[in-house]
Amino acid sequence: MARTVKLEMATAARLAEELRAGRLDAVELTERTLASIAASKDPAIFTEVLGDRAKREAEAARKRLKAGRPLSALDGIPVAWKDLFDIEGRTTTAGSIVLKSEPAAKRDASLLEAAVAAGLVTIGMTNMTEFAYSGIGLNPHYGTPRNPCDPVTARSPGGSSSGSAVAVAAGNVPLAIGTDTGGSIRVPAAFNGIVGYKTSAGHYPMTGVFPLSRTLDSLGPLAHTVEDCVLADMVLRGELVPAARRISLDGVSILIPETLVLDGCETAVLDNFEASIERLAKAGARIKRAPMPALAAIPELISKHGNLIGAEALQVHEVRIKGRDAVRMDQRVVKRIAMAQSMSATDLVTVLQTRARLIAEVNDVIGTSILAFPTTPHVSMPIAPLEADDELFFRVNAKTLRNTMVGNFLDWCGVAIPNGKDAEGMPTSILFSARRGGDTDVLSAALAAEPVIRPLEA
Question: Is the CB of residue 211 less than 8 Å from the CB of residue 179?
Answer without folding.
Answer: no
